[in-house]
C-alpha cells in the first residue's frame, strides 16, 4: 500500500510526516469554483475533487494501484455569512482580516481518502476567536506575506497566533489537516486506525 498526498500545502506535508506517514505528493490542477454555499459541503467537495484529480492523473499514467490511498483536504473559513478562501491580493487579505477582527469564525476542513475508486469524506469544524486588530497590525501582518496561501488570510501556527484568544475544536483542523478526523476516516477506509 502507498499513501499519496494530493496537496501542495507544506503544512499538510508536515502534519503527515509528524504522525509517521510515509507518502508521495501528487497534485493535479483542480477547478475550485462551486455554487455550494454551505461551508462544510464545500470543504468536503473540494477535498474530494482534489483527490479524484490526482487519482485520474495517476490512472492516465498507469501509476495507480488498487491498494493506493489518496489523501486530500481543503479548508475554508466561514465568517459573517461569507465563505473565505485564500485571498486574491493584498486588498482582499486586509478585507478578510478586518472581517475576522474582534469576531469569532468557523474553520471547516474537509478530508477525503480515496482507495480503489471509493471515496471516504468528512469534515471538522473549529470555532476561532480573534482579538480586535488595529489597522497597523493588519497592514504589518499582510506585509509578512503570511496570509496569501491560507484560507481566511491567516495561519494559526504563525504570527496570527498572537491574536487568537481561544478555539473550540481541533487545532489541526485550523492548520488545514484534522488528524483525529483523518484517523477516523482511515479506520473506515482501511479497517484499522493510523497507528
Question: Could you characterize the architecture of this molecule?
Answer:
This protein is an alpha/beta fold. It has a single domain (3-190), classed as Maf protein (Alpha-Beta Complex), CATH 3.90.950.10. It is built from six helices and seven strands; from the N terminus they run E-H-E-H-E-E-H-E-E-H-E-H-H. It has helices at 10-18, 39-60, 90-100, 135-143, 171-175, 179-190; strands at residues 3-5, 23-25, 69-79, 82-84, 104-115, 118-130, 164-168. Strands 1, 2, 3, 4, 5, 6 and 7 form a seven-stranded mixed beta sheet that branches. Helix 1 (10-18) links the parallel strand 1 and strand 2. Helix 3 (90-100) packs across helix 4. The chain is elongated.
Brief account:
The protein has helices spanning 10-18, 39-60, 90-100, 135-143, 171-175, 179-190, and strands at 3-5, 23-25, 69-79, 82-84, 104-115, 118-130, 164-168. The protein is an alpha/beta fold and 195 residues long.
Gyration radius (Cα, Å) is 17 Å
State the share of residues found in helices, binned by percent. Answer: 25-40%
What CATH architecture do you see? Alpha-Beta Complex
User: What's the domain count?
Assistant: 1
- By DSSP, the count of extended strands is 7
Low-confidence stretches: none
Structural category is alpha/beta
Beta-strand content: 25-35%
Listing every helix as H and every strand as E from the N terminus to the C terminus, the arrangement reads EHEHEEHEEHEHH
Average pLDDT, all residues: 96
Number of helices: 6
The general outline is elongated
By CATH, the topology is: Maf protein
CATH class division = Alpha Beta
**Major β-sheet annotation:** 7 strands, mixed
Amino acid at each position: 500500500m502507498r499513501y499519496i498526498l494530493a496537496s501542495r500545502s507544506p503544512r499538510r506535508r508536515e502534519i503527515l510526516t509528524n504522525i509517521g506517514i510515509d507518502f508521495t505528493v501528487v497534485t493535479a490542477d483542480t477547478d475550485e469554483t462551486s455554487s455550494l454555499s454551505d461551508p462544510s459541503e464545500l470543504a468536503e467537495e473540494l477535498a474530494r475533487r482534489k483527490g479524484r484529480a490526482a487519482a485520474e492523473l495517476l490512472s492516465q499514467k498507469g501509476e495507480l494501484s488498487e491498494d493506493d490511498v489518496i489523501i486530500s483536504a481543503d479548508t475554508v473559513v466561514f465568517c459573517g455569512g461569507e465563505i473565505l478562501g485564500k485571498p486574491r491580493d493584498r486588498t482582499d487579505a486586509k478585507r478578510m482580516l478586518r472581517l475576522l477582527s474582534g469576531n469569532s469564525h468557523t474553520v471547516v476542513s474537509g478530508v477525503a481518502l480515496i482507495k480503489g475508486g471509493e471515496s471516504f469524506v468528512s469534515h471538522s469544524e473549529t470555532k476561532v476567536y480573534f482579538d480586535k486588530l488595529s489597522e497597523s497590525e493588519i497592514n504589518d501582518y499582510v506585509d509578512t506575506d503570511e496570509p496569501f496561501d491560507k484560507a481566511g488570510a491567516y495561519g494559526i501556527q504563525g504570527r496570527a497566533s498572537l491574536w487568537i484568544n481561544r478555539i473550540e475544536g481541533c487545532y489541526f483542523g485550523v492548520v488545514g489537516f484534522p488528524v483525529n478526523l483523518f484517523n477516523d476516516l482511515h479506520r473506515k477506509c482501511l479497517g484499522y486506525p493510523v497507528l
